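Design job #97: recover the sequence.
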């Protein structure tokens, strides 16, 4: 190793353009000159020329140029070639300087594969070899940067920042760009958005003359915007990062940028766009970590579409993240699994998933890293908002509120026994009589087309008139509730409700969750949530259909409960529940039969006869005759007397 090589000295100062200029002025460049000039070209984004020059250096006897060649192959998404290129070199005796670089590259390869344990041990070896070399802290800076990245990947962002701060103190301008960029990303996951923005702004200033750093720094800025909830800005930056990475031949960054674009499109309900980005990202994945991310994004996409296959895909992602000890990503997967369960009505499984995510939140020491995913999970947010404050897992909602800088404003939609909206407990004044109905319809049936809404909500209205009314209601809702949006998806030609910084409470959703919760046997408590017919007193065919479906569901579950209680001899509970349910449907034959049986046992023949007479009169007034199941009860009364 020629420590006085002028090209290498320029590289250590971060002057890649100057290093390349010096090389072009050499009359007879040697193999070491080829090696370092190749590294200059790499950092200037001239990948093909860099690979050619590095291969030339190896062929001329500079075996250590395999280190830089392996780095180039790794970043180009060719991990097998990168690994074999470096493995051949590691068999040879190396000077401490080259040994440190070789172990650092080996650790980066282990990182790409997701093997954090192996990466850490290789970095420790690199640190040992780098101590006391002629390059001093300038060499240790690059090792500290990778060490910080390892801890960041493990979700230990506070510890990662310690290494980034060490690296920043001695880094040259080019290296400082990468270190500050990585530090900014860790600050994002710690929820320190202003500090992250400052670090990334500083990184951009240092990276102005180093195009090789642009893709990853642009990607990191996109992560910050997504964490802040600025999805439009995030989408623009991720698209720019993907384009820059593609141009530079940097497959790894392009892969994660495409998967991030999938996440943004999924969050905004652009499912076909999300699927396209997922396909691109999956095609670029290399190693188990990339595969885990692709599965995470696929599972999240399926979950928001209410597909039952989402849980299987997310479980596969969990297996990979568990094996790789990527706790942050594992926590994200649990959150998306909770969303998937909630959309299928499986409350118990959703709560279990949220508890697992909360365990990881405490293991990492902070929940701010989870905010970036929980922002895009409306059912998780609504479910957490409807639970008691002391329940395990509510920390996730607190983290989200802290990231917003304040407790999320609460929108309450009351649709059982009435039709009104409240904002932070205060009624929202709406001039259009059917605005609440339209909001209810879109929340219950997201991604509805305009023609579907017109046919369902206004079957007898003239086309232009119904279209105008829907658009007026949409404008009134957006104007009356800041943060509520009903965007039009041009690709699918559909409308959906988006709640930005708002916490939704919906009595119908709360009732559905309770009725679906098989782990809670308190049916009477669940019944308390039913406060009247849907959207009363509004009428319409779709409303009546939904009312009947909800009423039938409640009665069916009630009859199952009555069967159990009757078999157990719980007659008083049967009487109470049958009376409550008959308030929903006074003419249900099975309920009336349970009422009469319980009355006979608890109150005797006289009370049972009086109840039977009253019920018969009700049927005669309504239908003109009495159902056979009710009529035969008089014979049972007579037989019991004998």
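Job complete. Output follows.
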């Amino acid at each position: 190793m020629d420590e006085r090589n002028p090209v290498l000295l320029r590289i250590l100062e971060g002057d890649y353009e100057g290093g390349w200029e010096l090389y072009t002025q050499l009359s007879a460049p040697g193999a070491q000159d080829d090696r370092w000039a190749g590294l200059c070209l790499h950092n200037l984004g001239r990948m093909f020329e860099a690979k050619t020059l590095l291969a030339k250096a190896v062929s001329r006897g500079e075996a250590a140029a395999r280190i830089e060649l392996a780095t180039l192959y790794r970043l180009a998404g060719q991990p097998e070639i990168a690994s074999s290129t470096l493995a051949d070199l590691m068999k040879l005796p190396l000077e401490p300087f080259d040994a440190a670089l070789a172990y650092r590259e080996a650790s980066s390869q282990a990182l790409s594969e997701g093997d954090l344990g192996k990466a850490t041990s290789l970095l420790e070896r690199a640190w040992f070899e780098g101590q006391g070399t002629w390059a001093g802290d300038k060499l240790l800076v690059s090792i500290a940067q990778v060490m910080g990245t390892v801890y960041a990947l493990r979700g230990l962002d506070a510890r990662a920042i310690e290494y980034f701060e060490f690296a920043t103190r001695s880094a040259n301008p080019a290296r400082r760009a990468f270190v500050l960029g990585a530090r900014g990303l860790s600050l994002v996951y710690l929820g320190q958005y202003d500090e992250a923005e400052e670090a990334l702004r500083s990184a951009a200033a240092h990276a102005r003359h180093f195009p090789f750093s642009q893709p990853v720094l642009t990607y990191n800025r996109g992560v910050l915007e997504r964490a802040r909830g600025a999805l439009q800005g995030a989408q623009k930056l991720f698209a720019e990062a993907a384009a820059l990475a593609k141009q530079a031949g940097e497959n790894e960054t392009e892969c994660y940028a495409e998967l991030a674009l999938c996440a943004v499109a999924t969050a905004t309900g652009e499912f076909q766009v999300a699927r396209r980005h997922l396909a691109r990202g999956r095609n670029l994945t290399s190693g188990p970590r990339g595969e885990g991310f692709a599965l995470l994004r696929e599972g999240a996409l399926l979950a928001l579409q209410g597909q039952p296959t989402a849980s299987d895909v997310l479980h596969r992602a969990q297996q990979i993240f568990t094996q790789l000890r990527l706790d942050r990503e594992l926590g994200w997967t649990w959150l998306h699994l909770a969303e998937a369960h909630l959309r299928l009505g499986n409350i118990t499984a959703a709560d279990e998933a949220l508890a697992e995510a909360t365990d990881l939140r405490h293991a990492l020491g902070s929940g701010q890293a989870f905010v970036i995913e929980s922002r895009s999970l409306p059912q998780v947010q609504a479910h957490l908002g409807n639970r008691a404050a002391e329940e395990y897992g509510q920390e996730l909602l607190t983290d989200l509120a802290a990231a917003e800088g304040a407790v999320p404003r609460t929108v309450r939609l009351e649709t059982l026994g009435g039709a009104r909206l409240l904002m932070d407990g205060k009624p929202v004044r709406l001039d259009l009589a059917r605005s609440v109905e339209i909001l209810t319809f879109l929340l219950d049936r997201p991604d509805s087309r305009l023609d579907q809404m017109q046919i369902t909500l206004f079957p007898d209205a003239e086309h232009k008139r119904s279209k105008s009314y829907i658009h007026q209601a949409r404008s009134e809702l957006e104007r009356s509730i800041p943060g509520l949006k009903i965007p039009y998806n041009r690709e699918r030609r559909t409308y959906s409700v988006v709640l930005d910084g708002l916490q939704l409470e919906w009595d119908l959703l709360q009732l559905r969750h309770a009725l679906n919760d098989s782990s809670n046997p308190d049916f009477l408590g669940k019944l308390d949530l039913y406060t009247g017919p849907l959207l009363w007193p509004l009428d319409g065919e779709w409303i009546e259909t939904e009312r009947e479906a909800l009423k039938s569901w409640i009665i069916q579950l009630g009859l199952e409960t009555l069967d159990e209680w009757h078999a157990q001899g719980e007659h008083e509970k049967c009487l109470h529940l049958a009376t409550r349910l008959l308030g929903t449907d006074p003419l249900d034959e099975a309920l009336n039969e349970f009422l009469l049986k319980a009355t006979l046992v608890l109150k005797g023949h006289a009370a049972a006869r009086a109840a039977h007479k009253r019920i018969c009169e009700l049927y005669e007034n309504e239908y003109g005759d009495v159902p056979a199941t009710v009529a035969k009860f008089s014979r049972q009364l007579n037989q019991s007397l004998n």
